[in-house]
Amino acid sequence: MKLEDLAKKDQYNFLSPYGLGDTMMLCGFADAWEKKHAGKIHFIIKPSHEVVMKMYGITNYSIYRFQKEWYKPEFMKIARKIQLPQKGEIFVAHPHFHQKRLTEFLARTDHINSDIPFDDFYREFLDIPMDSPFTPFKTGFSMSLVLREKLKQYGSLENIVLFLPEAQSLPPLSKTFWKVVKRIIPKEKVLIQNVMNHKNEIPDIPNVDMTIEEVIALASACYSVFAYRSGMCDLIAPFVKKMVVFFPELHPHLKKRYSLKQKNVFEYNSYFSSKTYYLFHCLPLIKVISSPMLVEKEISDAIREECVKLFPFLKILKSSIEVRYFLFNCIPVLKIQK
Predict the structure, then answer these.
(1) How many whole angstroms separate alpha carbon 142 and alpha carbon 165?
(2) Does residue 224 sit in helix, strand or coil?
(3) What's the pTM value of the predicted model, to 2 decimals?
């Protein structure tokens, strides 16, 4: 079916062109928009976003199959013609497709250093009152028999730690970073991950193929979740027992702008750096590694681990609470409490 054939003539047809978080925002502010404009919204979404409709209990939507694409030409053509919502027409419901009309708005709110919260970004774009409440999800998803069978080999659900290292709109974090994060998980816990692109897999962690609904269901039941900030975080945050979310360190304002603002979610800018000192410019002598270190037992306390390795004899592990010394990088010889 052609896109134009999906438009309902007596309603406002909102096409969501980008990510899960964007579709969630449109749904969360739909009541406020319909109240102001005295009209009904009909959503047009990609198949993978149907999960958002289910979570909101929305049935007035149509599915159009397309791949996410920045400034998709097909949608740009529609946006040039329909710059504001009109009854019976398709409105591309994202400001990136209306740059000419929204030049000032985008310059103020959408540059990399903007700290305008994402919900205010959408309130202003949708032209609704800035105190309009955001409607939360009505429901999540329960564990299905199919999902339980997929996870059977990993033991109790309460013992699983789920890694979600993927974000469709951000460059990936390094695998070295995720290896550092792995070290803080208690040994008795079972780690699994879910990625769509196998290039983003964290080495030595099983990748379990799951639908979005299944990821939400597991995140609701497992011990904890460690995730790169993405639209998936928006969907699972209301249901997780606890979740650690990482933002790219190079863009510190993203943490303020896209904060999930929930007590069970702990947010950090990702950080990893290392520096090696050489003897005679060729023999590695000292390697200094700085990285985020979170204590799982007290997950709200963030400490920075500084690990100094003197090859091949001594390793010094420093944290905010203690300093530990290891002979040959593995034999503990001394621990000093701070």
Answers:
(1) 23
(2) strand
(3) 0.78
